[in-house]
Write a structure and sequence with these properties.
By secondary structure, this protein is α/β, with parallel strands linked by helices. The protein has helices at 25-46, 48-57, 78-87, 122-139, 158-171, 183-193, 202-214, 239-249, 361-369, 407-422, and strands at 102-107, 117-121, 147-150, 174-176, 197-200, 226-229, 252-258, 264-268, 274-276, 281-286, 300-306, 317-323, 340-341, 344-347, 352-354, 357-359, 374-384, 390-398, 427-430, 446-448. InterPro entries: AMP-bd_C_sf, AMP-dep_Lig_C, AMP-dep_synth/lig_dom, ANL_N_sf.
Length: 450
């Protein structure tokens, strides 16, 4: 059975939402293997998609003797999901035959191509998907007495929706919707309703603070106690982004990440460590070239296997993310035994190798967000120079308070900081404040113009 911590209670005397958070890691690995075996046997019997895919690769359930034997299962890429939905609309392989009825349909953002539809039963949504997300807000200290505002447009995007539903239905907090509100209306209602918890993408919540300041409102005066960010790299991957948020709002910042196809991958605890939902998902970090496991703690591409939910389990799903690795140490001063995630380098297509150096959006963001003269907005381009060699151009905006006569000084400071971080020269272009786009959900900061 699923070891959930699902409960609707006013009790605030327990620290951990789920007993899995403090399970001895040796027992957790046994649980992972039991769930993996159950999942594979279930799909072998129920899913024509997986049965055919696995038989063609030479895999069958009997090959699973240990967790490490997962390597015998072929990888799943998002394009296979898209093709299956084109051939068998609307859900394709994302619906195991016989599963349903559905209470929620999710949809990916389309960052890497045509969006994928994700159907969810009540058990899979509240019992599994929200179980992965409620740990985020519980660890952040969100309780029944909080007033929560989730600052995003109400679309089928599941990540922030699951946090919304976790606060409302599982914890019992008052959750304030505002999908069509502009930033000024949000700020007005945050103040009027006494919102204590704010959720959204790091980019948008930083933008919201800027709008407040432009209208002579100090964001720190609004009483936001906790900020939870998701949807793009935040504090766990770009620490300077977290510091900017804390400084702007005077709030404690928590970050989480995941995929809509699987679940919440990792979330930060009160000590700032990012913990993995290891009872719900199995994680692999593979060499992007060979698909072999990297050494423990080393960077590579993240592959995730859904251990629990039964509508659309993704087995060895290539997330498309390059990560910094997973720590082998299972100890944390918060008391949790779930292993710690070291954050993202970036999407596979967003990482450019220049003279042997990998340049990623999170690395660039961390540099820019650490320079106080820079605004929150930036983007970077991959280009060819006159000799046909790859190069990077970074476009920034200075803070509005910086006189234009000092913009070149800002440009030089950014260029020098990028060189120190990456040991390569990058072109830096300074644009007038307000030139670059502002994003409410996932920010698109990379353009490949080669």
């Amino acid at each position: 059975m699923l070891m959930t911590g699902v409960r609707q209670t006013t009790d605030i005397n327990y620290k951990y939402w789920s007993p899995a958070e403090v399970m001895p890691h040796s027992e957790l690995k046994k649980l992972q293997f039991e769930r993996l075996l159950e999942q594979i046997n279930y799909l072998w019997k129920k899913s024509p998609f997986y049965r055919s895919k696995w038989e063609n690769s030479g895999f069958y359930p009997g090959k699973l003797k240990t967790l490490e034997d997962i390597r015998y299962i072929p990888l799943l890429v998002k394009e296979e999901i898209r093709v299956s939905q084109e051939k068998n609309p609307p859900y394709g392989m994302m619906q195991v035959p016989g599963s349903g009825p559905f209470i929620r349909v999710g949809m990916t953002s389309g960052t890497t191509g045509k969006p994928v539809l994700i159907p969810l039963t009540e058990e899979d949504y509240f019992g599994v998907f929200c179980e992965g997300h409620v740990r985020v807000v519980w660890a952040a200290g969100v309780r029944k007495g909080d007033i929560v505002h989730v600052a995003f447009g109400f679309t089928p995007f599941l990540g922030l929706a699951a946090a919304y539903d976790s606060c409302e239905h599982l914890i019992g907090s008052l959750v304030v919707p505002g999908g069509a509100w502009n930033s000024l209306m949000r700020l007005s209602m945050i103040e009027k309703l006494g919102v204590t918890v704010l959720m959204g993408t790091p980019s948008y919540i930083l933008h919201l603070a800027s709008v407040a300041q432009e209208h002579d409102i100090d964001p720190r005066s609004l009483g936001i106690r906790v900020i939870c960010t998701a949807g793009e790299p935040g504090a766990m991957s770009a620490p300077n982004t977290g510091l900017r948020l804390e400084k702007a709002w005077g709030s404690k910042v928590y970050d989480y990440c995941g995929t809509q196809e699987t679940n919440c991958i990792a979330w930060t605890c009160e000590e700032g460590a990012a913990h993995l939902n290891e009872d719900l998902l199995y994680y692999e970090v593979l060499d992007p070239e060979t698909n072999e496991p990297v050494k423990p703690g080393q960077p590579g591409k993240l592959v995730v296997t859904d251990l629990v939910q039964k509508t659309h389990p993704c087995i060895r799903f290539e997330t498309g993310d390059i990560v910094n690795g997973i720590e082998t140490d299972t100890g944390c001063s918060c008391g949790r035994t779930l292993r710690k995630f070291k954050g993202f380098k970036g999407r596979v297509g967003d990482i450019i190798k220049i003279r042997g150096v990998c340049v990623s959006v999170t690395g660039i963001e961390n540099v820019i967000r650490g320079i106080e003269e820079c605004s929150n907005n930036y983007e970077y381009h991959a280009l060819k120079d006159k000799n046909g060699m790859d190069k990077i151009k970074v476009r920034i905006e200075p803070q509005k308070s910086i006189d234009s006569s000092l913009w070149n000084d800002v440009r030089q400071k950014v260029a020098e900081s990028l060189y120190i971080a990456f040991m390569i020269n990058m072109d830096v272009e300074v644009l007038p404040p307000g030139t670059l786009p502002v994003f409410n959900l996932k920010a698109k900061r990379f353009r490949d113009l080669r």
